[in-house]
Amino acid sequence: MSNDNLSNESTAAGALVNPSDNKFTRWLSTVLADLGKNGIFIALIAVVALFAILTDGILLRPQNISNLIVQNGYILVLAIGMVMVIIAGHIDLSVGSVAAFIGAISGVFAVEMGLPWWLSILLSLLIGALVGAWQGFWVAFVGIPAFIVTLAGMLIFRGLALVVLGNANIGSFPTEYRGLGNGFLSGIFGESDPDIFTLIIGAIAIVALVVQQVRTRRGRQKYDQAVEPGAWFIAKLVLISAVIGWFAWALASYKGIPVTLIVLAILVLVYGVVMNRTVFGRHIYAIGGNRHAAELSGIKTRRVDFWLFVNMGFLAALAGLIFTARLNLAGPKAGDGFELEAISAAFIGGAAVQGGVGTIGGAIIGGLIIGVLNNGMSIMGIGIEWQQAVKGLVLLLAVAFDVYNKRRSGN
């Protein structure tokens, strides 16, 4: 073959394999991979946009946005604890009954016994932790599966709630107690519309997000780890910052920051650090990924399981207090279906059925998706029976998507 022919073939090959095309392909694949990682956040935006259209914008009114947080705060609190339990390969069916029981106990403390509101809350949280320790003992040290223990707990603590209440309601609670579920933080810098303090908090949240994301990106670059393209990184930051800014503006235009949102923000920050930056958090993921291997590596799995259920009992108690404070009433029907909502939030948020996978942020977003579905369908006048059917279908599709990804990746 002549040199001219070789030259012509090389030129043709160069035309077929354009370096700029390869660069674009790599950029596109990186963006698609990043979209996959943030798919649950995109799903939340899509659900909000859908119901904003279907409700003629009512969903996005400031009062409704605020109500969305207040009305679903207890489910989001439960979702934080539930996703940790699920990551470790367990389940907790008792959280609704525990929440009802603690709400009843707090009613006895704050209303019937007349204890100070803060002491009533502290004692109630302590009892919730003890309830978790009771269930954790049977799971961790006796070896009874969590499904059975918490199923028994669902019956036990529902019965105890009825015993404490005597099939009657307890109310009304002190004003400070009610603030846990219905209170707002605003007017720190004087009365204004929109509230200046809420806008400042929103701005701080945006700055903190940008700083954290930039530091994370630089850290990955420092160790030659793959990062998303710069243009996509900036576009994503702008989008998320815009969402936070709009959310802060909506709250500022109504009553300010709900106390429930402050509690949630603290919990997300604390538990995010626990799961991502502590030995205990790494042990939870290790146990869920492969319990036998975790035991062989020296992880004290029984101790981790025990404290997981203590934590779940504490958060179930907190959820019960928030719900009771919002209604200003401790009643026999409190807590019905809470466990199903919390489990759904965890799975919709990306937790794996087999354990070992899940995030606090994902569970929160999963809970928000459920809240938007409830709120949007209620505004549209859809009956509770269809609401239940839709939520069940969403849960089924979320788990099916997880199973599909597992099979595709060969795990």
Please characterize this protein's 3D structure.
The protein has 411 residues and is mostly helical. It is 77% helix and 1% strand. It is built from 17 helices and two strands. It has helices at residues 3-16, 19-37, 39-54, 62-87, 95-112, 117-142, 146-165, 175-182, 196-222, 230-252, 259-277, 279-289, 291-296, 301-327, 338-348, 360-379, 384-409; strands at 184-185, 257-258. It has a two-stranded antiparallel sheet. Helix 8 packs across helix 14. It is globular, with a radius of gyration of 25 Å. It starts with a helix and ends with a helix. Mean pLDDT is 87; it is low at 6-17.
Low-confidence stretches: 6-17
Oligomer: single chain
* Largest sheet: spatial strand order: 1-2
SSE string, helix = H, strand = E?
Answer: HHHHHHHHEHHEHHHHHHH
Mean pLDDT: 87
Taken as a percent bin, the fraction of beta residues is under 5%
What's the count of strands?
2
User: What distance lies between the first and last C-alpha atoms, to the nearest angstrom?
Assistant: 50 Å
Largest sheet entry: 2 strands, antiparallel
Name the structural class: mainly alpha
Throw out a few tags for this protein:
17 helices, 411 residues, globular, mainly alpha, single chain, two-stranded antiparallel sheet
